[in-house]
Write a structure and sequence with these properties.
Layout lengths: L3 E3 L5 E3 L3 E2 L7 H12 L4 E3 L7 H11 L7 E6 L6 H15 L4 E6 L11 H17 L3 E7 L3 H8 L7 E5 L7 H9 L3 E5 L11 H9 L4 H11 L2 E3 L6 H6 L10 H8 L17
Parallel strand pairs: 3-4, 4-5, 5-6, 6-7, 7-8, 8-9, 9-10
Antiparallel strand pairs: 1-2
The chain binds adenosine-2'-5'-diphosphate.
The site of adenosine-2'-5'-diphosphate has 18 residues, from helix 9.
Length: 279
């Protein structure tokens, strides 16, 4: 679980992250983060809009682990786009998390063509602030989330290219075009909801394949992400599941089974799409 992918700027990122979307602020988040770190997770993914950064920060503190041993990601919310607001939102997130730097900061959603005439310029202005924070060493790596190839284009022509794109990715919802585009540009793809927020765990074919390896369906999905060179961010607040989701290094999915899963028909997607989200 502490094995790493290496980002395009040579910064290592632990290859399974702990997801915290829909983890309520308060004791639940504190305990979840503490349990995850105790279980060996060193990579925690949160966002300002999750409303739990204060508790995530407390959980990190309570773990007693050295800051340098952890990889912490947060995301800039849609209402804070633009150069000046981005700088301020970043400071607020650091304060809430009680940290003095972030390992990774992402633009949560692209300003998109469905809502903004000048969407590309808005994303560039936001990116200029992220770039500045990166160059000042206050963020070790910068990237985006929920971007499609056409959203990425302009950013790729700036001084510092995005290092990560975090998208919804799980069996039945692979966004193959976006993944191929990112991988061709050396942008690491991260999977939000690698278990389809739990919806894909009911799929019979996945259950059958998982049983063959004596693993749970959740473990199969997480391992399948890794074997596609996509970094999974499974979320759980249940201690047994938090541990279970980290135990994905004692089996290898065969090429045939990878193909079977890769070719599954669409199912289980959240329905959120960068062009449809009304932000
Ligand atoms: P809970 O947090 O109550 O333990 P995703 O990461 O795709 O968003 O999925 C998160 C959902 O899947 C949550 O509802 C979480 O429940 C559930 N979940 C996480 N890990 C497991 C697991 N190993 N087995 C079954 N359900 C899980």
């Amino acid at each position: 679980i502490t094995d790493s992918f290496i980002l395009q700027n040579s910064y290592p990122i632990p290859c399974v992250g702990f997801g915290t979307w829909q983890t309520p602020n308060g004791d639940t988040a504190i305990q979840a983060v503490k349990t995850a770190i105790d279980a060996g997770y060193r990579h925690i993914d949160t966002a300002a809009v999750y409303g739990n950064e204060i508790s995530i920060g407390q959980g990190i503190k309570a773990s007693g682990i050295d800051r340098e041993a952890l990889f912490i990601t947060s995301k800039l919310w849609n209402t804070e786009r633009g150069y000046t607001k981005t700088l301020a939102a970043f400071e607020k997130t650091l304060t809430d998390l009680q940290l003095d730097y972030l390992d990774l900061y992402l633009i949560h959603w692209p300003a998109s063509e469905s809502k903004y005439f000048d969407w590309e310029q808005i994303n560039l202005d936001t990116w200029r602030a992220m770039t500045e924070l990166y160059k000042a060493g206050r963020i070790k790596a910068i990237g985006v989330s929920n971007f499609m190839p056409h959203h990425l284009k302009a950013l790729l022509e700036t001084e510092i290219a995005p290092m990560v794109n975090q998208i919804e990715f799980h069996p039945g919802h692979m966004q193959a075009e976006t993944v191929a585009y990112c991988q061709s540009k050396n942008i690491l793809v991260e999977a939000w909801s690698p278990l389809g927020t739990g919806r894909v765990l009911k799929n019979e074919m996945l259950q059958k394949i998982a049983a063959k390896y004596n693993k749970s369906t959740a473990q199969l999905c997480i391992r399948w992400c890794l074997q596609n060179n996509v970094l999974p961010l499974p979320k759980s607040i249940t201690p047994a599941r938090i541990i279970e989701n980290s135990q994905v290094f004692d089996f290898v999915i065969t090429d045939e089974d990878m193909e079977l899963i890769n070719r599954m028909p669409p199912f289980g997607a959240s329905g959120k799409h960068p062009d449809q989200v009304d932000f």
